[in-house]
Amino acid sequence: MERYKYQCWEGGPHIILPNSVANRWNGHVMTKIPLDPSTDYGRACRIERAYGFIEVGDGKGLVMRDPPLVAWDPSSSSDHSQTFFILNEWTNEALDDLLDRAKQEVEFKASPEIWEIPTGGLRMIYAGDDFQGSVAGRIDIPASAGKYSLVAGEYKEKEGNVIVLKLLKAKSPYERSDGA
Predict the structure, then answer these.
(1) Gap between the Cα atoms of 165 and 103, Å rounded
(2) Is the pLDDT of residue 45 over 80?
(3) Which has the least CB within 10 A, 12, 27, 44, 176?
(4) pTM for the complete prediction?
(5) CB-side neighbour CA atoms (13 Å) of 54
């Protein structure tokens, strides 16, 4: 488990937040009922699919709903993409190999959602945490500012079930498609 950055927390969603709005995320407020929809954690728990966006301050966060394990691919970190994984099932500890296969073989479907990521990068945390501290740890993700589209696909094999989420940065209208 060396090629990917993993985060584990049984019993709740994870969220990827732009650092510029992270101070607006309050996670689970101990004085409230955990699933109260007026709390950030309660809103994250209301995501009905395996992933989805919610409003955070004047931006958005990408929620990964109740996975036992999530991961980010540091090798995907470029000016044009970021790759995340929701690990739903696995049969052995060779998780890097499972994610390598998922990344290569998954069939992506586009989402109509566009995510505008401001300057300052991203962070991935357990959604019950707030911006001041973390129970499950924090993964810092260097992402350049811009508009990103989301593509996703599910990869199933005998050794596991993984949802792959990929953020693709929209090209500038001034950028040539041939790379020149």
Answers:
(1) 10
(2) yes
(3) 176
(4) 0.89
(5) 28
Burial 123-155 (b: 16+ CB within 10 A, else e): bbbbbbbbbeebebebbebebeebebebbbeeb
Rounded average pLDDT over 111-116: 91
| Residue 50, burial from CB neighbour count under 10 angstroms (0-12, 13-18, 19+) | middle
Find tokens 């409003």 and name the residue.
55
> How many residues are given for the chain?
180
pLDDT of residue 131: 72
Alpha-carbon torsion angle 115, 67, 155, 139, nearest 10? 60
pLDDT band at 32; cut points 50, 70, 90: low
Nearest to 103 by CA among 179, 48, 157: 157
Task: Give the integer Cα–Cα distance in Å for 132 and 91.
Answer: 35
